[in-house]
Amino acid sequence: MSVHIAFDTPQDIKDSVFELVKLVGKEGHGTVKKGANEVTKCAERQTAMMVIMAEDVNPPELLAHIPMICREKNIPFIYVDNQEYLAEYAGMTRGTKTAAIAILDVGREANDRFESVKEQALGLAK
Known about the structure:
The protein is of the alpha+beta class. It has helices spanning about 10-25, 35-45, 65-75, 85-90, 110-125, and strands spanning about 30-35, 50-55, 75-80, 100-105.
């Protein structure tokens, strides 16, 4: 397991996370910030509702501090396997990568999915 990964996320939950990211990012039913620096700022300022990180980040130390900040600020966080898919589902140009995203706002259309993923993330982080 990589230095920034605090727990294993089962594949079915990762699929749910990608669907949430697609609803909020690509389909515009909410607000996201993309990239390790933006996610760090959102976590520190407690404006993030949830943080999603890619497992295949290289170097993994790029994200090592984010789980610690999230725990300190009581922000749920979870992992997906691929930076490229994370970027695509977040609405970024195809072929782009992002190490992490922060969900700042969730629209009514995405709220049920958000609550489900949040509950699963909190359960895995224990």
